[in-house]
Amino acid sequence: MILSVADFIGVSKASASRIVHHVSRAIAGLYPQYVKTLSNTQNAFHEIAEFPRILGAIDCTHVPIQSPDSNIGEEYRNRKGIFSMNVQGVCNADLLFMNVVARWPGSAHDATIFNNSRLKMQCEEGLFGNRWLIGDSAYPCTSYLLTPLLNPTSVAENHYNEAHIKTRNTIERCFGVWKRRFPILSLKIRVAMQTTQAIIIATSVLHNICRLNNIRDVDPEVAMPQESGDITYAEGIGQQNHSVRQQLINNYFSV
After folding, report:
1. What is the rounded distance in angstroms from the CA atom of residue 142 to the CA atom of residue 146?
2. How buried is 8 (Cβ within 10 angstroms: 0-12 exposed, 13-18 middle, 19+ buried)?
3. What is the mean pLDDT of residues 112-130?
4. Which one, 64, 105, 151, 191, has least CB within 10 Å?
5. Buried-state track 183-204, b at ≥16 Cβ within 10 A, e below 16
6. Could you count the other beta carbons within 10 Å of the beta carbon of residue 137?
């Protein structure tokens, strides 16, 4: 990628690398302005499948990278044997990123990333009131992060799972739109680690700018590499708390 850019604009590869690094960092510096938690998310989420009080949908996605330094390389090899960064994202119902964490290696578990995030600390401090995040079974079910039931046995539990799937799908769609708009996120980032992190954050900022300004998404027919839907369950990672989820099922989905 860098060599192609260098040839196109008539500079050396080293100069092109510096330009990409500085521009990416400058755009990434706009993160606080364009990637932020919004207060008015729950109504739009409710319109999807009548799931109440949702703050945002959370998941992680792998961004392929070149082989890192040999001393740390294996940390970045994910379960598929590919070098990657495991990137956490939270979005609203309009596919706007509200949180992006791009500093963990591909071997890191989704729940580990969340458990060590500022977002989790904010949730535990009650910063978002009685609103919930919604995520898949890679996360522990807690009082502020709702996950699906692995073995639903009642009509109400099945209704909950169906609404959960439809609502949580927003983050998968958000990742899809983001990666189609910036194919480097699916193909492979071949630059130094610091620049890689800056590129990931910068593209999340640009994604939000595009969404806010109604710039059309890239044609969904464009073929991009697909991630496996395999989930590593959160057993033993963090404390589970099913009481809030069960109360929600009883109050909202048992009708």
Report:
1. 6
2. exposed
3. 95
4. 151
5. ebbbeebebbbebbbbbbbbbb
6. 17
89 within 8 A of 171, measured Cβ to Cβ: yes
For the stretch 176-189, pLDDT in tens is 999 999 999 999 99
Nearest-10 Cα torsion for 116, 198, 100, 67: -60
Given a contact cutoff of 8 angstroms between Cβ atoms, the answer to whether 145 and 57 are in contact is no
Boundaries of domain holding 39: 2-252
In degrees rounded to 5, what are phi and psi of residue 94?
A: -95, 15
Tokens 């100069």 correspond to 15
What are 89's strand-pairing partners?
59, 100
Q: Give how many domains the chain has, as a whole number.
A: 1
- Write down the pTM of the prediction: 0.89
Is residue 132 within 8 Å of 53, Cβ to Cβ? Answer: yes
Both tokens assigned to 12: 């050396």
Q: Any idea what DSSP says for residue 65? A: B
pLDDT at 90: 98
Proportion of the chain above pLDDT 70, given as a percent = 86
**pLDDT of res. 18:** 84
Name the 3-class secondary structure at 241: coil
Give me the half-sphere count of Cα atoms (radius 13 Å) on the Cβ side of residue 28: 18
